[in-house]
């Protein structure tokens, strides 16, 4: 497996982990595939009080983590995140106007950026563990995030 590909995928999924955890959601697991070209997955449980902005931040978190650490993001890794976001937002909100949707996306992206900039070290630590193990359990994620809070 190409080292740069797995590193980028680990950073992308670590972004989802960090933002989800810092928003107070249950982050159940995170996994990156063993084969290039496949997408990683981070399982996060929201709740009834999850706002559209929070959900949007979760969706953009992987892309924003890549931008923060690499200066750019590969759109292929974010394609599914964005398509899922567009589908869910259109099904769950009253947002009809394109400018309102763009405002929501802007607010969510900014929330993700703020969290990731504040917890830069957490991204690197989670990504490092993901690279080494290819998957992290809920308890491993909790341990990594708790350790980062103390440092």
Structure, described:
By secondary structure, the protein is mostly helical. It has one domain: Up-down Bundle (Methane Monooxygenase Hydroxylase, Chain G, domain 1). It is 70% helix and 9% strand. The chain contains six helices and three strands. It has helices spanning 3-22, 52-70, 75-92, 98-118, 120-133, 138-150, and strands at 26-31, 41-45, 135-137. Strands 2-1-3 form a three-stranded antiparallel β-sheet. The longest helix has 21 residues, at 98-118. The radius of gyration is 15 Å and the shape is globular. 36% of the residues are buried. The model has no long low-confidence stretch (mean pLDDT 86).
What is the element layout, followed by pairings?
Elements: H1 3-22, E1 26-31, E2 41-45, H2 52-70, H3 75-92, H4 98-118, H5 120-133, E3 135-137, H6 138-150
Antiparallel strand pairs: 1-2, 1-3
Short summary of the structure?
The protein has 151 residues and is mostly helical. It has helices at 3-22, 52-70, 75-92, 98-118, 120-133, 138-150; strands at residues 26-31, 41-45, 135-137.
Main β sheet profile: 3 strands, antiparallel
Named at the architecture level, the CATH assignment is Up-down Bundle
CATH superfamily: Peptidase M41
Number of helices: 6
Give the low-pLDDT segments.
none
Strand content: 5-15%
Q: What average pLDDT do the residues reach? A: 86
Which strand order does the major sheet show?
Answer: 2-1-3
The radius of gyration is 15 Å
Termini gap: 32 Å
Extended strand count = 3
Fraction of residues in helix: 55-70%
CATH topology: Methane Monooxygenase Hydroxylase, Chain G, domain 1
Which structural class should the secondary elements be placed in? mainly alpha
CATH class: Mainly Alpha
């Amino acid at each position: 497996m190409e080292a740069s590909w797995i590193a980028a995928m680990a950073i992308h999924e670590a972004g989802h982990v960090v933002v989800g955890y810092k928003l107070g959601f249950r982050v159940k697991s995170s996994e990156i595939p063993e084969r290039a070209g496949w997408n990683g997955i981070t399982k996060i449980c929201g709740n009834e009080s999850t706002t559209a902005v929070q959900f949007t931040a979760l969706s953009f978190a992987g892309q924003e983590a890549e931008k923060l650490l690499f200066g750019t993001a590969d759109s292929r890794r974010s394609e599914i995140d964005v398509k899922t976001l567009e589908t869910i937002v259109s099904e769950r909100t009253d947002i009809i106007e394109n400018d309102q949707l763009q405002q929501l996306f802007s607010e969510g992206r900014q929330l993700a950026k703020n969290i990731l900039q504040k917890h830069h070290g957490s991204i690197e630590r989670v990504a490092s563990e993901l690279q080494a193990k290819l998957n992290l359990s809920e308890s491993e994620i909790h341990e990594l995030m708790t350790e980062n809070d103390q440092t």
